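>> received
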Amino acid sequence: MKAPAEATWAELARAVGSIAQDASDNTSARQKWKWMAMCIVVALVCISWIGWYATGPTPDTRQAMALDMAKPRTRKQQLHGPTRQKGRWLMAYRFAQSGELQRLARCQGKGWVVQNGNCYVHSVPNEGIYGWSLPQTR
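>> returned
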């Protein structure tokens, strides 16, 4: 009776071993395909990034894009933008023509003192502080 029982156990052991081998083969094949797919995805992402970086915006095109973004978008901005810009330039031009810009640059106004390379405003005795009025902003 021992012989048939041993034969059955041996047959069962071979069957279990065969099933275990098949399961491990299937698992390793799946793992291999997963790794291959992940490597392909990573390689494609790297190649895409290199391509984008190599053909992406240059400093000149970035500057052009920034200038395009600075353009007025609405009708109101289109109408009032140049007027405001022209007004600013005109105000700066008049400031320079009056000679006040030179006084400001050289710190030569009344009550202005140069200390350590910086221009400071001090009050003049019995006269107050000299300066100018700024235009009101909206």
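>> DSSP finds four helices and two strands in the chain.
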